[in-house]
Amino acid sequence: MIIPEKQSVDLLLIHAGTLLTLDKGPSGPLCGSETEDLGEILDAAVAIQGETVVAVGSTSVMQSRFSATRVLDVHGRLVLPGWIDCHTHPVFSGTRENEFAMRVAGSSYEDIARAGGGIRSSVRTLRLTETEDLLDLLLQRLDQFLLMGTTTVEAKSGYGLSTHDEVRSLEVIHQADQIHPIDLIPTFMGAHEFPDEFRSDRDRYIDLIIQEMIPIVAERNLARFCDVFCENEVFSVEESRRILLAAKDAGMLLKIHAEELASTGGARLAIELECTSADHLVQIPEDDIAQMARSSVVAVLLPGTTFHLGKKKYAPAQIMYEAGLPIALATDFNPGSSMTQSLPMITTLACLQLGLSPHAALAGITRNAACALDLNRSHGRIAPGYQADLVVVNAPSSDYLPYHYASNRVHTVIKRGQIVVSEGVRRTP
Ligand SMILES: [Zn+2]
């Protein structure tokens, strides 16, 4: 009898009690009831060579096929693809807990913004902060993301709002991406707000974005996406269209903050311009949901923002689910309207306030979030050829993650094949 020689790999993770591959169904995002089958394997193992997953299967079969330099026994814990936060604003200096207290006392987010607070207050602070301090703050926040299981983060500029400070913010994102294990996907968001100096001349600020910022950002390849805050009193649909078209012409992919506080037509603009994602969508009209479901736009829902703003109306996720619109979830981490870096907390809110099942919520922070970042071929699944980004959770089953809320259950994080968190502690490989 010939015993076939085992293939040797760098790392073999074994005895995952439950492992979700997310590698099922059609090639794109998972929609509606497709999210109920996430490719569950019990007592699972994953073989990793370098930065890439080689194979996934049951522990007994995998142990017969592979020998490994390092074997990691996870003792029945839950294993998922590394979480992807597809909407964050992490480059800021200074926090806004004073506004939180004002909101608790009855002021609205819009009132605070009108009075000069909100985004513009963060802009004033960022402009006074040295670049190395901005980088340091971002790196500390990325460590926190990693400890909470997040391995890929979309990161927007948008607290600079001058050519110098927007470029500086994007450069900080690039530097952090080089230094830190987390993959950062940079988004240019000069159209986050109108800065103080352009309040009475909005057209000149839009010209500055289109004629100066976008060409420099594109020329220096500083951003993969361009995003616009399309909202009453911020950027109108027409203004958003001009900016996004200029970014598209310059080679960027598009995102849009749409229909958050009011219904303004942002969702239709996302469909028209073939944005990769439309984000927030709390106030999206029902007709537009059906239309968006027939397009390639991914809906990114941010229930943490609704929660943190103390609003009662959440995005109509169940109608989206029924319509077959793919749903991704993100924290919207920012110092004003969503001061959290916890994607598990977002899954809890998605279940309780959006009415999604635990499995639909998990698809929202893995495979569908990868689709919202155009990373569907490399991130968001545990499958051969995919980047070896895995999170090991102190949980007996997948439903447990949203159930045990406001608790960090992350045990081990593997990023590009390296163990970067173990026993809940950050490790340097
Ligand atoms: Zn946002």
The outline comes out as: globular
Instruction: Count every beta strand, where a strand is a DSSP E run of 2 or more residues.
Output: 17
Q: CATH superfamily of the largest domain, called what?
A: Metal-dependent hydrolases
| Rg over C-alpha atoms, rounded to the nearest angstrom | 21 Å
Helix content: 25-40%
- List the domain count as a whole number: 2
**Under the CATH scheme, which architecture of the largest domain would be assigned?**
Alpha-Beta Barrel
**Biggest sheet overview:** 9 strands, mixed
CATH topology heading of the largest domain: TIM Barrel
Q: Which class best fits the helix and strand makeup?
A: alpha/beta
Our measurement of the CA-to-CA distance between the termini, rounded to an integer number of angstroms, reads 41 Å
Molecular structure report:
This protein has 429 residues and is an alpha/beta fold. The chain folds into two domains: 7-81 and 380-426, Urease, subunit C, domain 1 (Roll); 83-372, Alpha-Beta Barrel (TIM Barrel). Helices cover 35% and strands 24% of the residues. The protein contains 16 helices and 17 strands. It has helices at residues 59-65, 97-104, 109-114, 119-127, 131-147, 163-179, 202-219, 237-249, 266-272, 286-293, 303-308, 317-323, 343-352, 358-364, 367-372, 400-403; strands at residues 7-20, 40-49, 52-58, 66-73, 78-81, 83-85, 150-156, 183-191, 225-229, 253-258, 277-280, 298-301, 327-329, 390-393, 410-415, 418-422, 425-426. The strands form two sheets. Strands 1, 2, 3, 4, 5, 14, 15, 16 and 17 form a nine-stranded mixed sheet that branches. Helix 6 (163-179) runs parallel beside helix 7 (202-219). The longest helix is centred in the middle third of the chain and has 18 residues, at 202-219. The chain starts with 6 loop residues before the first strand and ends with a strand. The mean pLDDT is 96. The structure holds zinc ion. Residues 87, 89, 257, 332 line the site of zinc ion. Zinc ion binds next to loops.
